Amino acid sequence: MTSTPTFPPGTSAVSPVPKRGVTPPGDAATPYDRLPRTLRWAWWRPLLGLGVFAAAAILGSTLVAAAVMIAMVAAGELGTSPEAIEGLLDRMRELDATDSVVLVLALGSIAIWLVAVWLGLLAAGMKPLGHVSSVALRLRWGWLGLCTVVAVVTLAANFAISFGLSAVMGEEVAAPQWTPWDRLWLPLLVVILLVPFQAAAEEYVFRGIFVQALGSWLPRRAWARVIVWVLPTAAFVFSHGYGLWGLLDVTVFALTAMWVTLRTGGLEAAIALHVVNNVTVFGLLASGALGSTVNGSSEGSLAGVLITAIVSLVFAWVVDALATRRGIARTSAWPERASAVALTVPLPRPVAYYEGRVDAVARAS
């Protein structure tokens, strides 16, 4: 019995939905950015998911800010006058890494996006939710841990090279203004507790649901790939209020995070790099080792961007090599589904030609 073809090619009229622990019906090699196509696919599902995420993120960030402000008012640390509120907003714009309240506001209001991501996916019926983590339909914790080790080593090299070159070239380096321990321990605790969730939330948004929405909407074409890279990267970069060199540095980071995500089929490497980077930066700022505790006080330089680019390339290369050596899945074996119920295309009935007549020959089923 011959199989019945379907349209679009590569889809199935009866395609099972991916589930953890269930063997896929073949090896489709679906890339990370097109994983939503392996689910109960419809064009409106990613759109609904993004819409619910945006609403939940705004609401969640507002609730975090309100909770912190209510606690401050109750503790007598914040007045209710417009001037007092404006003063708090000024503190947030400055973002002093020793200001624990501001850290909780800044980091907590982004960390809550993780919940918003899950709510968006649930509302859109895009299950299993783990498809946004990796092609394995889950966060691969062992792989995340290994990538974290690589990130620690490469970022340590980054800072060592930066400080070393500054000393060799005789550049003026701000003298450390060490923060006393009694003012340092609480900001460090906030950083250690909240940064992993803040950094992961940004990855789930900018390299996760945003990338997968675009990847599932657009065709498998080179120009579509460019859009998948450019739009989320631009959104991430311009969400940071830095100067020129700072934005270029963030761009290098964003491109590296995008590459390792698509290359390794998951967010683990990008999360590891983001977490280690932010913990290190906030930790150094809070300690006063950089001469200032204010985020973005350094304007950066071309040399700094070049060093970041080189170290990022090393990180990406090592991660890629380790993924190959450890057999990390880069694509999903689950096939893509049609945009609606796959259209069954019937085979034409064969015909026999003789004596100038055309007679249909019944096909045996």
TrEMBL record:
Domain of life: Bacteria
Name of this chain's protein: CAAX amino protease
UniProt key word Repeat: no
GO biological process: CAAX-box protein maturation; proteolysis
Domain CAAX prenyl protease 2/Lysostaphin resistance protein A-like: 186-279
Signal peptide annotation: none
Lineage: Bacteria, Bacillati, Actinomycetota, Actinomycetes, Micrococcales
MF-aspect GO terms: endopeptidase activity
Segments crossing the lipid bilayer: 47-74, 101-122, 143-164, 184-201, 222-238, 269-290, 302-323
A Pfam family it matches: Rce1-like
Keywords: Hydrolase, Membrane, Protease, Transmembrane, Transmembrane helix
Transmembrane in keyword set: yes
